[in-house]
Structures are given as C-alpha cells and as structure tokens.
Amino acid sequence: MADAALISGLLSNLAPLIKDKFSLFWSFKEEVQKLSSTLSSISAVLEDAERKNVQEKDKQTEDWLRKLKDVAYEVRDIMDECTFEDLRLQVNRRNASSSTLIQVTNSITRPFSIPMTRLKVGHKIKDVQKKLDQISSERHKFHLRESIPDKFASSWRESMSLSSCKQVYGREEEKKKIIDILVNNTSGACVDKKLSVLPIVGIGGLGKTTLAQTVFNDEEIDKHFETKIWVCVSDEFDIKLVIKAILEEKAESCLEELQKKVRKRLSGKKYLIVLDDVWNEDVNAWDQLRSILDCGSNGAFVLTTTRKKNVAEIMETIPHFELSSLSQDDGWLLFEERAFVHGKQKPPHFINIGKEISRKCKGVPLVTKVLGSQLQSNCDENEWYRIRDSEIWEISQNENLILSILRLSYYDLPYHLRRCFVFCAIFPRNAEIEKERLIQLWMAHDLLPTVKNQEMEDIGNTIWNELCRRSFFQDEKFDQSGNEICKMHDFMHDLSESVMKDECYKLDANSSSDGLKRKIRHVTVMDDEFVKNSVRSLKKIEGLQSLIFLNVTSATDMQIFLRALKELPTLRVLELTLIRDNRFSQLLDLQLGDQYSKIFRNFR
Q: Which of 117, 261, 470, 571 is most buried, judging by how many CB atoms fall within 10 Å of its CB?
C-alpha cells in the first residue's frame, strides 16, 4: 500500500533539504527550483488522493500514490548522493597538504565542476523531473483537489503521562477457574500424567495473553509453583528456540545439549511454563517438546494461548479453556476508561453514543481500547457519530472486522504518528522494541517532524508516548538494564505490515532471498546462512535504506557482509548483532552523513 503519511514525510523533508543544500546545486539552479516547485504542488493534493484510495478504493489513485512514493525516494537518494559528495570533499580538504589545499578548496566550493560528476547528477535530476511532470499531469486527470494544510498539525502534544496500573475488566471469573485448575487440578484430567497442559483459546484481540499474565502473576500461583517461566512462541514453533527461551540462553547449542540442560533445571520440580501465542499444527514437533519438558513433579503445568482450536487439541491434556467476549457492561467500562478523561463530567449525549460504539466492538478488548483511545478528549460530536455509523461494522468475519477497525483508527492518526508506527513493521512479530533504539531509527530515516525549540530525541519520546496512549504499542515496561521497551499486538503488527508490505522484507529460515525485490527499502535478516550464501543479492535492491542482521554468528560472517557494503550507497541504517559466547564486544558506529543519525547495536 502506498501510504500518504510516508509520502508526506518524504516530500516535507525534501523541500528544506533542497533549500539547505542549494549551494551544492548551483550548477543546476533552474532544474532544482522546478523540482522543488513540482513537489510542492503535488504535495498539496495528497490528502484528497488518500481519501479516494481509502474510502473509494480507487485503484488508479493507489497506483498514482505508489509511483509518487517511488519518485520521492529517488529524489531523496539524489540529495543524499550530493550531500555525501560534499562531505567527502570536506574530508579531503581537512586531510590535504598545503600544496593541494587550493585545488581541493576549489573542488569544495564547486563540487560539481568535474564534468562527469555534473553530467551524472544532471541526468538523474532530469529523469526524476520527467517522472514528476507525468505524475503532476495525472493528478488533473484524477481531479485531485488541494487540501488545507495538514489537519493533524494542531494535534501535537507536548507531553503525555502513561498509567502503569491498568485494570483488567471482566476476567475475574475466568482467572479464578484457571487458577483453580492449575493449583487444585479440578479439571477431572488424568492424574497419572506428570505434565498437564491447559490451552486458552480465542480470536486475536480477545485478551488471551492478558488473562495468562494475570494468572501468571497471581500471588496464589507464586506460592504453589517452585518455578515460573514465560515464553512467547508466536509464528515459528522452533523447539530449540523455545528451550533456549526457557533457559534464557543466547549462545548456539545442539538440541541434545539443550534438552539435557532444560531437564536438569526442571527435573522433579513443580513448575509452570506459559507458552504464549502458539500456532504450531505439527503433532510430532509438539510431542518432541512435550517429551523434553515432561520431567517435573506431579502438578507441573504448561499453560498455552492460541487462536486455533486444532492447535489446542494437539497440546491439551485438559480440555481447553475457550475465552469468551467481554459482556456489554465490562466492554463499556473499558471503553469509558479510555474515552473519557477521569475527573471530568461526561456529557450525556457522548455517553449514549459511546455505549453504542462499545456495543459494536462485540466485547473485543483490543478494539474497545483502540477506539476509546482514539476518541479520548475528542469533543467533536460528528467524529463520534462517524465512528458509530462507519461501514466497517458490516464486515462479518471477526478477525477481518478487527483489522478494519484498527485501520480506521490508524487513518485517524496524524501523518507523523502514522509513518513512525508503520515503520515498526521492520521488527519481527512479538519483538521487544527498545524506545531509545526506535527513536534513533526514526531519526535516521527522517520520520520525525521538526518542532521549534525541541530536540529530536524529545520529539521521538512524545511520539512513543502517544502511540502507547493510543494502544498502538502495549506492554510498556523497563527491562533489567533500565531500558524502556514495549511490544506490538499481533494485529497491530499485521496492520503495519499491510501498509509496508512493498517496502519491508524479513529473511528467516523459511524465506528466500528471491523475495528481495527492487523496491524493497528495509531488510531484516534472521538467518545467518544468508550472510554466507546470498549477501550479494542485496545489490539488486536499488534503494535499500535499512539492513538489520539479528544473528551474525562469527566475525568472519560480519567481514563478508561488510565487504558488500560498497554495493549499498543509499543505506541509512546498519545494525549487526554478533552472537559469540554471550560476550559483548565493542559497539559498531556507522555514520553515513551529517543528516543521518548514528545507529549503534551490540555485538554479542
């Protein structure tokens, strides 16, 4: 999907960049002025183009937006190339001997005086101008109208505090039943089995993980079980990864060694392991994991959460617990908490509309929270009616309905929040996202708006807080090192991927480098074999901007990759995580220019 928020960010950043670096383009004065003028006129109709694309599902407008996005990236790449050339010449000047100082100084004041360089840049500017002229003429054919300045500009918040204590509504009875099963084994299950398995089943967004968390952290559970372990499984059911999560190990080991370690840790103990978000339908894979874990004392338990009944039936030794929707009363309490500011009087007509909206949420907590947060402190009665009367409620399938509702809330976000949120599609599902790291990534890609008298880090912090407040991020907490982290719900991750599907690609053991298409902008590599076998395939990507390696297993692999860097001139972010005997070595500092942020990642 070609999203107007991404395009708006590109266009809004290009204008000041062209102005700031105009001296570099003195040889192309007229061409650059025309380029800037064309970009400004196209930017004025973005909002109307998005309305046609989203509300009217106009395919021609969607194609127009996609072409505009591609050309905007091309223009930015030209700006980056010119800026890099300027920086390179400045370095040469600092390093020059006195005998060559005058010659180098002349090159810097006229960086495109070299005929070949000037010819190359001139052709690129001419080429993108031709494409922009075509795009500009098409906007008249589509009857796109100019809009008022970004309607979201006034929604910028200086600060936002987040409550660390959020009440869970309508799950006390379910929590009590599950604790009773875990502690007293009241399910009627066969007691001669050492390891009992109880799955919690329900559609996405229903609160399975939240319920499991309240059970896991209950005082009675703390007293009953000797050991408690939480494992987020998600899409890939990898036995080695599950066991390593139980052991809290990162170093590579064979399965035989891992199973010995985990059995040594759990043997004879009454333990509780939560396997959250299981999708595995392979009976043999589950039987293998169960046989490894079946070493505790009587009363050892595995509590799992899953969306699929057939997955639950593979694992269960106790009939699965099917989670129901919230009651209308509990759904309203959750909506009320999110939509209305505490301590302020609630206008009766807003309460009535709010109750109608909360009923339409069908007791799904994620939808209720997101819509309630969207309407928080919104005094525009028409906006409340718009949500209540939206056609999205007519969608029949539950999970399609949830995604459609979340998409409605997404399009309600200001452009700067939208582009920062969808960028998070680069992270693997269920990843813990570190705030400081994410803000650096936003800065490196020029996703943050400029706010007078504010540092970029402070602006990024405000955006983080706002996305948390609106429930686009969840599970905010501080890790053991004191870093603030969060997660994205699966549906939120699906939403970000649906917007960024043409720009993001994740390479793991189940994917292929064949999927690295020319228009991909961000690549996350989770398979170290890629470094050895396919790293040079990256050069076919024309505008690669982010490259994140999560599991580089040796310094040799890293060197192979670094040699390929010269093929990636548009790269803005490089992250390498070197896993080596659990020891941390020095940070990688890659600085690609004065307008780029430095991105640091640990080698470990």
A: 470
